[in-house]
Design goal:
alpha+beta, five-stranded mixed β-sheet, four-stranded antiparallel β-sheet, 41% helix, 22% strand
Length: 301
Amino acid sequence: MKDLLQLEDLRVFCLVVRKGGFTAAAETMAASPAYVSKRIRVLEQCLGCRLLDRTTRRIAMTERGEHIYTWAGKILQDVEQMSVEIGAARQQPRGIIRISSSFGFGRVHLAPALGELAQHYPELSIRFEVADCLIDLAQEGIDLDIRVGNEIAPQLLARKLANNRRILCAAPAYLARHGTPEQLSALGKHNCLVIKERDHPFGVWRLNGPQGECSIRVQGALAANHGEVVHQWALQGHGIMLRSLWDVERELKLGLLVQVLPDYYLPADIWAVYPEKLASSAKLRVCVEFIQQYFRRGGLA
């Protein structure tokens, strides 16, 4: 008589398919590849059929495997929904939630918020990742991405957490040496500090101005793929940068940086982005609402 079907085995099977391999699935679970292999073997024995064709380089679902994968997704979603509905009145969300953000915003604003979140909900296990590139939430198994910028793929769900804009600014020393640009076209003659950050094209600044949206191509002697590096260069007087207001507000108040061309800016609000509805996950809903309230208390909203 075959063993009873285990939900954990279905979860492991779905994760292997999404990640494209046993090792990647094991890393996501913080388990060993041997454990993943065992769970797949037990599931195949329980169902009496082979689910995956394995080669040295890749795995592929069998015809039966594709059928089981569809059913497994429905079963796991129903179980999750049942858990949400039964535990809707609970004040303590539990389980693992994977959250991502960019390096700069993640370090300065989101990390402290998550630390406070963990104190409020001790049964919640937070896995935080930072990267200055767009993340495929489904591919990477990310539950929640906190991102700066208003370009969000239509298949994703999002809630705005705080208002923000990117502005042009430079150190007083740079402007004393090179002059302050009086019109947007003058940026072409200035040393602009260019950054490739997440989903923004390199060397092109798209800005809103008195005549609406416009684009200008900029260049300079210094460029980097990390916002904090560019921030330091600007403070040292090396050029003009386009940077989020949340990141430069303190230096503007202290006079360490000066805003230039104040009529031009890039809308770049702060968003919570997620692949499923908040109502379907209590822990996701709690995290989004907590982070939003935290930002409001901190003056970001």
